[in-house]
UniProtKB/TrEMBL annotation:
This is Esterase. It comes from the Bacteria. Signal peptide: none annotated. GO terms for molecular function: hydrolase activity.
């Protein structure tokens, strides 16, 4: 299984939790890809160039891929899945401390306001949103809205801020859990019939703070 780690704005694969997480995942037998993308202050945010770099460093996506994006990098993943030709849906997408939207016009096209939710949620078999309640850069409400928009599983933590420190066990635990849990509703799997050999009547239940410059 391949894990694709996408860094955020003004970051790189050598910053924040990325080196630790990549090292831990490789030690557990995962293939890890850590693309380096032009996401820096003072540089024009050229989405086609960024996506071309993703294509060059990541290539085609498969059903065994888990994509993990931090902050602004989460939406590079979303845009990549929109742009790249796919014959299989990745196993999961994990969005860490990701903003729901931003005010800057030049960045708006990265975000979900310009993506079709009904299409986006089918680009991967599952979505996870990991967000800390004490994130002062991207408030927790962004994670809640994002999870609702994508029908994602929200993994909330009491602490962690914007996930800019060296180690976060919750990230490793979440990825391992995804990788080791069979996906129940993959194409072709038959769902169990709860009513088989049972009377219908027996089954009826009774009624009853400071923001980063790209966010401003």
């Amino acid at each position: 299984m391949r894990i694709i780690l996408v860094h955020g704005f003004n970051a790189s694969p050598e910053m924040n939790f990325h080196p630790w997480l990549a090292r831990e995942l490789r030690a557990k037998g995962f293939e890890v890809v850590t693309p380096t993308l032009p996401l820096k202050s003072g540089e024009e945010l050229d989405l086609p160039v960024i996506l071309d770099e993703m294509k060059r460093q990541v290539g085609f996506l498969t059903a065994d891929d888990i994509l993990v994006g931090h902050s602004l990098g989460a939406f590079i993943i979303m845009q990549y899945m929109e742009a790249v030709e796919m014959t299989e849906s990745p196993r999961a997408v994990v969005l860490i401390a990701a903003p729901y939207k931003v005010a800057k016009p030049e960045l708006r096209r990265l975000f979900l306001v310009d993506l079709d939710a009904d299409v986006a949620i089918w680009k991967a078999r599952e979505f996870y949103v990991i967000h800390a309640k004490d994130d002062t850069l991207v408030p927790f409400e962004h994670g809640q809205k994002l999870a609702a928009y994508l029908k994602a599983k929200l993994v909330e933590t009491e602490t962690g801020g914007h996930f800019m420190d060296a180690e976060y066990p919750v990230l490793l635990e979440t990825i391992e859990r995804i990788a080791t849990t069979p996906f129940e509703y993959a194409p072709g799997i038959s769902l169990p019939d709860d009513y088989e050999n049972k009377a219908w009547a027996d089954r009826i239940a009774p009624s009853s703070e400071h923001k980063p410059d790209w966010m401003t």
